[in-house]
UniProtKB/TrEMBL annotation:
Residues 24-103 form the Retrotransposon gag domain. It comes from the Eukaryota. InterPro entries: Retrotrans_gag_dom (IPR005162). This is Retrotransposon gag domain-containing protein. The lineage of its organism: Eukaryota, Viridiplantae, Streptophyta, Embryophyta, Tracheophyta.
Length: 290
């Protein structure tokens, strides 16, 4: 940046090396000026380009590197930071990238980097532009501050969103936490280590959701589980679980995709976690006509 400004100001005599040698030290200050006084002897330099190369070699570490996609993935909203300020800060960094990304990709990254519970509340909203995202996010942010979402936000999350903690026995209308099935990976849902078919309890661990199991009787539905899932999301009574990037295989069938877990391996209609969540909602009369 300093060199660009210097050459812009000295454009008229850019080919006059003697003039450039005279002007350059006058443009320096602080550490740069001290470096010039202590280490540079213009008489020993054949041309001005040698001085510029020495300057770059000495101060190259001060050059701000352009952000990468990895940088943006880790650029998250700070605790207490207003969502508008975060979006502006994120976009400012994004604009410095050498290889720009699409708007849809950028919107997805921003939403994923919001703090809870804002991220869960906005993750399923149809966001089409940065203006749309900012307006919706600010509206939800105001609702969180005013207590409008207290009925669907776990108490621990309201008290400390930084920890993103969940109540151990959170009902289905509050949160869908896939951590209850941490072991359901490559052999979902056949892995007996996930949940003992007979007892309905996790092997070696305490079951966080009593009653959940393979042998549970599920109420027949008039709609598909995917339709019920979207209905609960629209009502604000269901949050999708956190998904890693890239998402893990949650079953053996690579051709199938679960829209609840947002991961390949099994079909949405066969998702045991989603079926148990919906059944909990039916049992608690959170939903009545499905």
């Amino acid at each position: 940046a300093h060199l660009a400004m210097f050459f812009a100001e000295c454009y008229k005599f850019r080919h006059n090396h003697r003039a450039l040698f005279r002007c350059f030290p006058r443009s320096l200050e602080g550490i740069a000026a001290q470096w010039y006084r202590e280490h540079i002897n213009p008489v020993e330099l054949k041309n001005f380009d040698m001085l510029i190369n020495l300057f770059i070699e000495r101060f190259i570490q001060n050059v701000e590197t352009a952000p990468t996609i990895t940088t943006l993935c880790y650029l998250k909203q700070r605790p207490g930071e207003k969502v508008r300020d975060f979006i502006q800060r994120w976009r400012s960094s994004c604009n410095k990238m050498r290889d720009p990304i699409s708007q849809s990709h950028a919107l997805g990254l921003i939403v994923n980097n919001l703090t809870q519970p804002l991220r869960s509340l906005i993750s399923n909203a149809p966001i089409k532009s940065f203006i749309d995202l900012t307006e919706r996010a600010e509206c939800i942010e105001a609702g969180i501050e005013n207590g409008a979402f207290d009925a669907v936000i776990p108490v621990k999350v309201r008290e400390d969103t930084k920890k993103n903690s969940r109540s151990q026995n959170a009902p289905a209308n509050i949160v869908a936490n896939a951590a209850a099935f941490k072991k359901e990976k490559s052999e979902y849902p056949k892995n007996k280590g996930v949940m003992d078919r007979a007892s309905g309890s996790s092997s070696g661990t305490k079951n966080k959701h009593p009653g959940w199991g393979y042998d549970r009787k599920f109420t027949p539905l008039q709609q598909s589980y995917e339709e019920v899932m979207h209905m609960l999301i629209e009502r604000g009574t269901l949050f999708l679980p956190k998904v890693s990037n890239p998402p893990p295989m949650m079953g053996k069938n690579k051709e199938q995709f679960c829209k609840f877990h947002r991961a390949p391996g099994h079909d949405t209609e066969d998702c045991l976690v989603l079926k148990n969540i919906v059944q909990d909602a039916v049992d608690k009369e959170i939903i009545k006509e499905v």
